[in-house]
Fold this protein.
Amino acid sequence: MVAVSIATAAGLLTVGPAIGTAAAHPSAPASRAAVPDTVETALPWGACPTKQYPDLEGTTVQCAPLKVPLNYAHPTGPKITLELSLTKHTSSDANYKGAMLSNPGGPGGAGLDLGFFLQPAVPHHVGDDYDWVSWDPRGVGASKPALHCQNNYFNPPRKNYTPTTSTILKYWEKRSKKYAASCEKKQPALLNNITTKDSALDMDAIRAAIGVSQISYYGFSYGTYLGQVYSTLFPTHLKYMVLDSNIDPRHVWYKANLSQDVAFNRNLHIYLKWVAKYHSVYHLGKTQKQVSAKYYATLHALAKHPKGKVGPSEWTDAFSGAAYYRFGWEDLASAWVKFTKGHYAPMLAQYDSAEGPGDDNEFAVYNAVECSDLKYPGLHKVLKDSKKYAKKYPFLTWDNTWFNGPCEYWKSKTHHVVKINGKKTTSALLIDETKDAATPYEGSLEVRKLYPHSSLIGEPGGATHADSLFGDACVDNKVAAYLKSGTLPKRVSGNRADTKCKPLPDPNPKASSSSAATPNTVRPAQAARLPFVLLR
């Protein structure tokens, strides 16, 4: 295999050992979570698994497996394999900034190709100054073993998320229990070692394996929490860190889901108001109230009689994307119009893109991590809270309940979450829109408090999740400035953003070309891949 050189990112830029050579290990921090010296230091960089990642075929991206301990408390015990990718820097050695690890979210998001898309997306070619190292986290994608519990778990149509009868309630309880049991049966050892802390230790194993004393990190959504945990355990191993759409570490994970119920309900109505604004295009109602009535009337009708493979649950899931992002609003509205005319396939396609049948790897790891990080409350409390929230926030509350339903029956070992401490992290750039539904804005304000050497870019009124490096010049130029020289927006007093950017505009279906709300400044490579988001 070809050895690829990578510089040591430790403040001063010095030429480091080639990947694949037996480089000396940097000193591990004095921490009980320190990565053992048994991790590999020679990686066989070569071809990527293009069957799983066809977008990497024909590129210069190289991949390699890395064996890490299944359980870091027993470093000489069984190993698992992480699949890594390397998108090399293309700038001169004088501009080289070191290694950048990246995570797309989830938990359960496959990330092997993420660096390939992010590198050209950073403005002014600053991304070219980094070697982007991405990976499929433990249990995910091309890493081995990959967790699969029940493929086609999301096959439509399914019963209504809202348990209006005892039969429906038992249906979802049984499905959740069966799914948890399937996961436990497939990979019991992995399920006992798949917490966020385990993945943070994996990150430091990757750092050691590529032969650098420091890394930079770019995380979206759940990836922000992974960055929080990593920076708490290994603050001296971080140079720069960008966290887009922050998890509130106080609410991992049950309280986070309840907060989402409120925010997703709000964002659905933001979308329905937009549909009403363009009544001349869609003819679905002239006011938000009328469009909302049509949405819920269809939902209730589907609960009695699904249309094709679109039932009430598929209908809800199809609209969840509109509450996550502004991107895709037009396609969903067009599918809705066709649905009213008896053409159901476009709406089913919207569901397929949101959830859909097939490989359940991402959903399996989502549950494995969330159910293992911290124990969920008992079913009695979950049902009580869900009933309470659904009365006021009906859109996604029961959907969210059953999306996390397996956690009520999870039997693998549960761990305590890491208490986040950002005081020793010397630099971090935080980004969030104020009406982000998946990770409500309060989370970014809390992380800002915990990281005194951070700055927060706030986007007032924005309701899109994890959209940095997607064409908003105000945000993206600040990211570029930070990654180029460590320049952060000046920290201000109070519990607020340190600087503000206007969010991207809503799509305009009357414009001659309105493929979502992205201006021409968005780079083609990143436009092909939204950050993976499963968190809900």
In short: Residues 1-33, 514-532 have pLDDT under 50 and may be disordered. The chain is about 35% helix and 10% strand.
